Amino acid sequence: MNYSIGVDIGGTKVACGLINENGDVIDQKMAPSQTETRETMFQCVIDCIEELLSSSSLPKEQLKGIGVGVPGKVDRDNGIAVFQNNIPWKNFPVVDRLKEVLDIDHIVIDNDVYMAAYAEWKDNQLIDELMVYVTVSTGISSAIIDAGSFIRGAGFAGEIGLIPICTDHGRAPLEKVAAGPALSQKAKKICVDESAEAKTLFKHYYEGQPEAKQLVNQFIDHLAQGIYMINSLLDPHRIVFGGSVAMYNPVILDLLKQRLQIDMLEEQKHLLDQLYVSQLGSNQGIIGAGLMVFDNSNGI
């Protein structure tokens, strides 16, 4: 059996896992992100990978390479992290630096959401269909795979969090009103607690608090606008949701279906039976990055 290492880099943590060709996570490690400088961030990644290598005791000939998921815009061909808003790696040569330190030749890089989408595509086996993966977490983004190929555009495709949607206070980017930080702000409105988070809002929702119900329904309305734009533009066969907000609050799916039915034409409603929450848990990023290593095209 051959193995790879999948690395999922974010603004709060770095996760890396030892992945086999079937997409199974054999071992994994995690470390808080050190975002003070580009070098502290890079060293954090190195430490996480080296700890994994040390604990797994894998013979080097069985390790086929490393896949790295990085937030923001990525130059896959040249292995460069071009732009991120949560780690200090503007135009950072990630692949060359990793090769230099780790002495591993085969290293692939892609956007972190694309890596997660790749894992979902493999898991759902949607070889000839169009799938959209949507992450609802600290931010909101998506990746599109059609018949086995990513739709990348000029390099920034899938950024649905930037779509302006209608709110009670005018137009705003979807991410600003429906991602985790916005939900945390909503939670603080109803419990006057500076430590309130998105999960606090949903806790009150499940308890039947009227204000929480109103705010969650508002969130659903905003998210539905973004999803309906995706549906109208792409008419996907399936949409899979990931990210902490979506995965830890499965009620979102039923509420979203109810809201989408209002706007959808009959010909569009086939999608309502093809909305899913990821079954891979929080490991999509490292699984997708690891599996990408076994794809000789350096990304589908």
TrEMBL record:
<dbReference type="Pfam" id="PF00480">
    <property type="entry name" value="ROK"/>
</dbReference>
<keyword id="KW-0808">Transferase</keyword>
<dbReference type="GO" id="GO:0016301">
    <property type="term" value="F:kinase activity"/>
</dbReference>
<comment type="similarity">
    <text>Belongs to the ROK (NagC/XylR) family.</text>
</comment>
<keyword id="KW-0418">Kinase</keyword>
<protein>
    <submittedName>
        <fullName>Glucokinase</fullName>
    </submittedName>
</protein>
<dbReference type="InterPro" id="IPR043129">
    <property type="entry name" value="ATPase_NBD"/>
</dbReference>
<dbReference type="InterPro" id="IPR000600">
    <property type="entry name" value="ROK"/>
</dbReference>
